[in-house]
Amino acid sequence: MNIVVCVKYVPDAQADRTFNASDNTTDRVNVDGLLSELDEYAVEEALKIVEAGEGEVTVLTVGPDQASDAIKKALQMGADKGVHVNDEAIHGSDALATSLVLAEAIKKIGMPDLVVTGMASTDGTMGVVPIMLAERLGVPAVTFASELTVSGSGVSARRDGDAASLTVEAGLPALVSVTDQINEPRYPSFKGIMAAKKKPVENWTLADLGIDSGAVGLANAWTKVEAVAARPPRAVGTIVKDEGDGGAKLAGFLAERKFI
Question: Is the pLDDT of residue 165 over 80?
Answer without folding.
Answer: yes
